[in-house]
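Below is one such record:
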Amino acid sequence: MNYFVFKVQGIDAGFIDEYPRGSPTDWKFDEGISLIKQFPVGGEVSFSKNYPDDRTVYDFQPNLMSDLLVSGRARKLIESLEVTNAEWLPVVVKDHQGAVVGPDYAFLNLQGAEDAIDMERSVYRMNAIAKDQIGRVKKLALKYDAISPQAKVFRCTMERRLILIREDVHAAFVQAGLTGFKVYAAEGWNGLEL
């Protein structure tokens, strides 16, 4: 089974630069822990006023927090793929003027993590602050036998901000025409987003 590094990208995207008011502390969104009880019901996010001309809406909406902000269409597909570690934190997306442009979005908060990174074969630098996390990947090597066969979209234990998807999930995203993402072959990835 092949895996891909999953990154959210979109040209002229209505860029989201903060979580809804009343959300848990930012760092908790990278931990792979349940946040549904702490997340505000009826949460709203808005396009950043720092990018007033960028208004495009994608299935995976670019955001400063580097999280997966997912359209209703993408959510239905992910649910149909039986991704079992998905927690959905619903929000409404508004444009710069406060008009609703995405009534059925949600942050996809992936639960848990897979011990997917081969720390002996990978080239990396550890994070100076979060000392148990990789700060920068220079060459990624995977430990395939440590990845659960049920893991389809997941965080990596040693770099929880790094999201990997299985090749069949990538194929389903492409076939459905989902927008707002780019993938890189995980094995040998140099950590750059070009």
